[in-house]
Design brief:
Layout (H helix, E strand, L loop, with lengths): L2 E2 L6 E2 L37 E2 L3 E10 L2 E8 L4 E7 L8 H15 L9 E7 L2 E7 L3 E3 H6 L5 H20 L12 E4 L4 E3 L28 H4 L7 H16 L9 H10 L5 H4 L5 H10 L11 H12 L5 H23 L3 H14 L7 E4 L3 E2 L7 H16 L5 E2 L2 H4 L9 H8 L3 E10 L2 E10 L5 E11 L3 H15 L6 H8 L6 H14 L4 H17 L4 H16 L5 H18 L4 H13 L4 H14 L4 H13 L3 H14 L4 H13 L3 H14 L4 H13 L3 H14 L3 H33 L4 H11 L2 H14 L11 H7 L3 H9 L7
Parallel strand pairs: 12-14, 12-15, 13-15
Antiparallel strand pairs: 1-2, 3-4, 4-5, 5-6, 6-8, 7-8, 9-10, 10-11, 15-16, 16-17
C-alpha cells in the first residue's frame, strides 16, 4: 500500500518520507524528526579502561549516526584498533539484529588493500561492537575541505576506491553509504573504504519507517530517495557523487534543507565539473555524468566498467564510449545554442538552419589533425618539403589555445593509410581533419587544403587553394591557420592574433635547408644530429638572421648533451650561444624557449629557470608536446607528481603514437614504482619500434626492481647490442650463466669502466651498473664524477628506485641531492 503526495498526487512507496516526483514531505512523515545522523547515546568509556577483557581504551575518536568510535589497543594481539560501538536503537528488533550480524560477518570477510580490515563483530558487556584496523590519516572529506585535489591525486584515489568497491561487489556485499567521510586516506596516500556492512541494517533504504536518516542525504541515489528497492548500482551513484566532489571541489546536489537536496537529486542535473575547474578533462566529466545517471539502467552497470574508464584516462586514453558521449554532448550544446539564437525570431532561426544544412558547420570543433600533405611534384626527394609544410601548419594551428592539435609524429603514420577519415579521426580522438597537397611551381608554392568534419559523419566543411612566392610561405601558413580557425568558429586571443600576423618573408634556400635539418633532428641519432647541424649551418650561410635555424642548432647541441653523445662542457656552451642568438632575433618562438628549458634542466640544473622556460614555450604553443613531455620530467624530478602526470596526459593526447613519449611515460611510471604499468607501456612502445633505446632502458630497470633477472638480462643484452657492444654482451651472457645476475652486473660495470678509459661514457650509466651489482661505494664514486662533468642523467638520482633504495641512507648520496638542490624526501 503506497502513500499519495498531497501536493502532486504522486503515488509513493509506504516507507519513504519524500515524494519521488516533487520531493515534498509525505503525510506519513509528519511529526517525525528527520536528521542526517542518529543521536548517539552510548555511554563513554574511560581512557585506560579495558573493554571485553582485551581492548585497552586509548581515546575517543568521534561520534556519529553509526555510533561511538574509540582508538584502542588489542592487548592479546598487540595491535592498534578502532572500536565502534553501535547504538542500541539500531539493533533493538531481533530480526534486524540477526540480519545485521549475518551481513556484518560477510563484510568482515572482505580482504582488500582499499577496504578497512574488520577484525571482529561481537557483543560484550551488553554492547554490540566492531573491531577494525586503526587507520592513520584523514578522511577524504577533510582532504577535500583543505583544498582542491590535483587531477592525478583525485584519479588515484578514485581508482583505489573503485577497486575496493569492485572487490566488495564481487563478494555480493553492498555498502549503501559511500561518501567522502567514509573514505580514509592514509599517510602513504592509500584510500580505504570504511564501514562496510553497516548501511544494510536499514532493510534496503536509507530512510527508515521510524524516520531515521541513515548516512548523508547528498549521496543518496534517486532510487534510495524514492524508497525503492536498490542494488549495487546505488553504490556506483554514491561513488559518482564522491568523484564529483573530488574533481569539482563541491557536492553536485545541495540545498538549505533536506527536501531541497532530495528534489535536486530527483530532478536536476548538476553543474558541469568543467565549469567549476577548467583544467578538468571533458573525459572525466563524462565519467562522472554516467555514474550520476538518474535511471540506474543508464548508469554504469558494473563498477568494473567505471574502473576501466578511470584507468584509461589515467593512462592518457579516452575510452571509446566516453568519446561517443563527448561527441553527443558537443552536438547537444551546439543545437542548444541554435535554439537560443532562434528565440530572437523566425528569420534568425531560418538563417541558422540554412547554415546548418548547407554549410555543414553544426559541429563544435575543438580538436583537429593535419594529415600529411601529398607531394604532387612526383619527386620522392621532395617528400621532405611536403612534410615540412605539414609540420608548419601543425605549428601554426598549435599556437591557438582553444584548439587541440595532434602533433607530427602521430599523424605521419597515416601518410599511406587506406583508413577512412572518420576512422583516423576516431583513432586520434579529433573532431576534424585537414588534408591536402603541396607543389612547388617555379619560385612559388601551391597548397590545396580541405577541412573535413567527422562528427556525426564525414563532411567537407571548407577548401581552398593558396599560391604564393616561396619567400612568403610563412605568411601563407599563417593565413591558412587563421582561415581554419574562422571556419570552425574558434576565437583567437589578442596575443594569438598578433603572433600569427607577425609571419615574415624568408630566404627560400635557407628555408629549404632548415626543413631538411628538421627531418634529421627528429631522429636523434648521432649521425642524424650531425646532418641536422650541417643543414642548419647551411641555412645560416644563406640567411645569418634566420631565427629558426639558430633554434635548431641549439636543440642539436641540447639533444647531444641530453643523450650523452658528447661531454656537457662541449655541448652546453654551444647550445646556449645558439639559443641566445635566437632570442635576440625572435623571442616569440616556442622552439627557443624549449631549447633553453632543455639546457637549464639537463645541462645547468637550474630548476627554476627551466620551469619558466618550459612554461613560456607552452604559453606560446599550447599544443607543443615536446615541451610538455620534458616539462613533465622536470616536475617528476622535483617530486611534483600530480603536475607531472597532468602534463604527461596532455602530451599523450597531443601525440598518442609517439614512441619516445610513450617510453618517457614508462620512465615516470617506473619512478612512481608502478612497475606493471611501466612494463605494459614499454612493451607497447617496443611493439611499434623494436629495440627502442629508452623503452629497453626503462624495461630493464623495472625487471631489475621486480627481480625478474632472466628478463632483465635479455633486455639489457638487447640494449647494449643495439648500442654496438655485441661481443661484450655475449661474454656477459656467459658470465650470467656461470655466476648469476650479480656476477654479470659486476662484469658489466667493469666493461663500462674499461670503455670509459678510451672514450667518453656517461658516468651515470656506470654508477647504475655498480649499484645493481651491489657495489655501493663504487656507484657513489661514479655519481661524484657525474656531478663533476654535469652528466645530464644526474637529475634522476632522486627518483631512480634502485638509487633511492640502495643509497638513500648514505650521507654521500644525501649530500649529492643537497648540492644539486634536489628534493631529499620522497
Amino acid at each position: 500500500m503506497g502513500v499519495k503526495c498531497s501536493k502532486c498526487q504522486h503515488e509513493n512507496p509506504d516507507d519513504t518520507l519524500f515524494c519521488g516526483k516533487c520531493a515534498g514531505p509525505l503525510k506519513s512523515a509528519e511529526g517525525i524528526s528527520i536528521t542526517k545522523t542518529l543521536i548517539t547515546r552510548a555511554e563513554s568509556l574511560q581512557k585506560g579502561s579495558t573493554f571485553a577483557g582485551r581492548y585497552k581504551i586509548i581515546k575517543e575518536l568521534g561520534r556519529g549516526g553509526m555510533g561511538v568510535v574509540y582508538k584502542a589497543e588489542d592487548t592479546k594481539l598487540k595491535r592498534r584498533v578502532a572500536l565502534k560501538f553501535l547504538p542500541p536503537e539500531l539493533i533493538h528488533i531481533p530480526e534486524v539484529k540477526e540480519r545485521f550480524m549475518r551481513e556484518a560477518q560477510a563484510a568482515a570477510a572482505l580482504d582488500h588493500s582499499n577496504i578497512c580490515t574488520v577484525y571482529e563483530f561481537d557483543e560484550a558487556e551488553e554492547k554490540t561492537f566492531i573491531s577494525m584496523a586503526y587507520i592513520e590519516g584523514q578522511s577524504l572529506r577533510k582532504r577535500i575541505e583543505s583544498g582542491s585535489l590535483e587531477l592525478d591525486e583525485a584519479l588515484r584515489i578514485a581508482t583505489q576506491v573503485a577497486e575496493g568497491l569492485q572487490e566488495a561487489h564481487k563478494k555480493e556485499v553492498m555498502h549503501r553509504d559511500i561518501k567522502s567521510a567514509n573514505i580514509m586516506v592514509t599517510e602513504d596516500n592509500q584510500a580505504k573504504i570504511m564501514d562496510f556492512g553497516l548501511a544494510r541494517m536499514t532493510g534496503g533504504t536509507l530512510i527508515t519507517k521510524e524516520g531515521m536518516t541513515m548516512g548523508t542525504i547528498a549521496y543518496m541515489s534517486p532510487e534510495q530517495a524514492r524508497g525503492e528497492e536498490v542494488d549495487h548500482r546505488t553504490d556506483i551513484w554514491s561513488l559518482g557523487v564522491v568523484l564529483y566532489e573530488m574533481f569539482g571541489g563541491q557536492l553536485p546536489f545541495k540545498g538549505d534543507q533536506d527536501q531541497a537536496v532530495v528534489y535536486s537529486i530527483l530532478n536536476k542535473k548538476p553543474r558541469p565539473i568543467t565549469d567549476l575547474r577548467a583544467e578538468i578533462p571533458m573525459s572525466i566529466e563524462q565519467v562522472v555524468a554516467k555514474a550520476l545517471e538518474k535511471n540506474p539502467d543508464e548508469r554504469y552497470q558494473q563498477v568494473e566498467d567505471l574502473l576501466d574508464d578511470l584507468k584509461s584516462i589515467s593512462a592518457g586514453i579516452v575510452p571509446d564510449e566516453i568519446r561517443v558521449r563527448l561527441r553527443k554532448e558537443k552536438l547537444r550544446k551546439r543545437k542548444k545554442a541554435i535554439l537560443y539564437a532562434g528565440a530572437t525570431g523566425l528569420i534568425i532561426i531560418m538563417g541558422v538552419l540554412a547554415l546548418t544544412l548547407f554549410t555543414g558547420r553544426a559541429e563544435a570543433i575543438d580538436s583537429i589533425a593535419v594529415l600529411p600533405l601529398k607531394n604532387l611534384t612526383g619527386d620522392a626527394e621532395q617528400e621532405y618539403f611536403a612534410d615540412g609544410v605539414t609540420d608548419e601548419l601543425i605549428g601554426q594551428l598549435g599556437q591557438i589555445s582553444a584548439l587541440r592539435v595532434i602533433s607530427r609524429q602521430s599523424v605521419m603514420q597515416y601518410r599511406e593509410s587506406d583508413k577512412s577519415l572518420p576512422e583516423i579521426a576516431r583513432e586520434l580522438n579529433v573532431d576534424a581533419v585537414v588534408e591536402g597537397s603541396v607543389q612547388q611551381v617555379g619560385e612559388s608554392v601551391r597548397i590545396r587544403v580541405q577541412l573535413i568534419g567527422t562528427i556525426p559523419e564525414e563532411r567537407n566543411l571548407w577548401g581552398q587553394t593558396y599560391e604564393q612566392a616561396m619567400t612568403d610561405v610563412l605568411v601563407m601558413y599563417s593565413e591558412i591557420a587563421r582561415a581554419i580557425a574562422d571556419k570552425i568558429q574558434v576565437k583567437l586571443t589578442t596575443q594569438e592574433e598578433t603572433r600569427l600576423a607577425r609571419a615574415r618573408q624568408i630566404n627560400p634556400q635557407a628555408y629549404d635547408a632548415y626543413l631538411k635539418g628538421q627531418v634529421h633532428l627528429g631522429k636523434m641519432t648521432p649521425p642524424d644530429l650531425e646532418t641536422a647541424l650541417q643543414y642548419f649551418e647551411l641555412a645560416l650561410e644563406k640567411d645569418p638572421n634566420f631565427a629558426l635555424a639558430h633554434a635548431g642548432i641549439s636543440l642539436v647541441w641540447g639533444f647531444r648533451n641530453q643523450m650523452g653523445f658528447v661531454l656537457p662542457k662541449e655541448a652546453i656552451p654551444q647550445a646556449t650561444a645558439a639559443a641566445q642568438r635566437t632570442l635576440e632575433l625572435d623571442n616569440t618562438l616556442a622552439e627557443v624557449h624549449y631549447a633553453l628549458a632543455i639546457i637549464k634542466t639537463w645541462g645547468e640544473w637550474d630548476w627554476e629557470g627551466a620551469e619558466k622556460a618550459f612554461q613560456r614555450a607552452i604559453e606560446l604553443n599550447p599544443n607543443y608536446p615536446d615541451a610538455r613531455v620534458h616539462y613533465s620530467h622536470l616536475l617528476i624530478i622535483m617530486n611534483r607528481t600530480d603536475e607531472a602526470m597532468f602534463q604527461m596526459q596532455r602530451t599523450l593526447e597531443l601525440d598518442p603514437f609517439n614512441v619516445l613519449f610513450q617510453s618517457l611515460y614508462g620512465a615516470e611510471l617506473l619512478f612512481l614504482r608502478r612497475y606493471d604499468d611501466a612494463i605494459e607501456q614499454c612493451q607497447n612502445a617496443l611493439r611499434t619500434v623494436p629495440n627502442h633505446w629508452l623503452a629497453l632502458t626503462v624495461l630493464y630497470t623495472v625487471y631489475h626492481q621486480k627481480r625478474m633477472y632472466d628478463e632483465a638480462m635479455e633486455t639489457l643484452t638487447a640494449f647494449y647490442t643495439m648500442m654496438g657492444f655485441e661481443e661484450g654482451m655475449k661474454a656477459l651472457t656467459h658470465v650470467y650463466e656461470e655466476s648469476g645476475y650479480t656476477g654479470a652486473m659486476k662484469s658489466l660495470a667493469g666493461m663500462l669502466e674499461e670503455i670509459s678509459r678510451e672514450t667518453y661514457f656517461p658516468p651515470f650509466m656506470i654508477a647504475e651498473a655498480h649499484v645493481v651489482a651491489g657495489n655501493n661505494d663504487q656507484a657513489l664514486d661514479w655519481l661524484e664524477k657525474g656531478f663533476e662533468v654535469n652528466d645530464p642523467s644526474m637529475p634522476y638520482i632522486g627518483v631512480m628506485p634502485h638509487f633511492v633504495d640502495l643509497l638513500g641512507n648514505d650521507p654521500r648520496y644525501q649530500d649529492l641531492l643537497r648540492r644539486m638542490n634536489l628534493p631529499r624526501e620522497k
